[in-house]
């Protein structure tokens, strides 16, 4: 009888061990399947490019200037408005702090333009380059150079 009791005791001990082993195996398999199903979503999120930073714009008031003419016609006038696209908020803040000097530089540049040159697309593109160049030097000694990424015309009337 002791032999039967020993066998039934081993069976009682063996059954919980098998159940625990099956539970561990099922848990490991479930975790592996969950990880595999989640990985493609993570890969697409990781591959998604980060959106570019918000643009920084600085709107200038409109300018009205007399243009240079070979026949000295005083009625040749340029009415122009534009917005500057800047690389960062610090540049916009610096431009705003020194706005009178920025406007002075731009007025000097615009008043030296000719009506014939501004009438063409190439003349307008050249004006964009000149605006970037005239605003590039530091506004006061010790400051960094100004960077203007783009000049966007909001008004352009040549009369």
Describe, in plain words, how this protein is organized in 3D:
The structure is a single chain. α3 (99-111) runs antiparallel to α5 (121-135). The termini are far apart. With 159 residues, the protein is an alpha+beta fold. Strands 1, 2, 3 and 4 form a four-stranded antiparallel sheet that branches. It has five helices and four strands. 55% of the residues lie in helices and 17% in strands. It has two domains: 1-48; 56-158, Tetrahydropterin Synthase, Chain A, CATH 3.30.479. It is rod-shaped, with a radius of gyration of 37 Å.
Task: Please describe the structure with a list of short key phrases separated by commas or semicolons.
2 domains; 4 strands; 4-stranded antiparallel sheet; 159 residues; rod-shaped; 55% helix; Tetrahydropterin Synthase, Chain A; alpha+beta
Helical amount: 40-55%
* Number of DSSP helical runs: 5
Total discrete domains: 2
Q: For the CA atoms, what is the radius of gyration?
A: 37 Å
> Which strand-content bin applies to the residues?
15-25%
Provide the structure class. alpha+beta
Which parts are unreliable, with pLDDT below 50 for 5 consecutive residues or more?
Answer: none
- Per CATH, what is the topology of the largest domain? Tetrahydropterin Synthase, Chain A
Named CATH architecture of the largest domain: 2-Layer Sandwich
Mean pLDDT: 85
* CATH C-level label of the largest domain: Alpha Beta
Quaternary structure classification: single chain
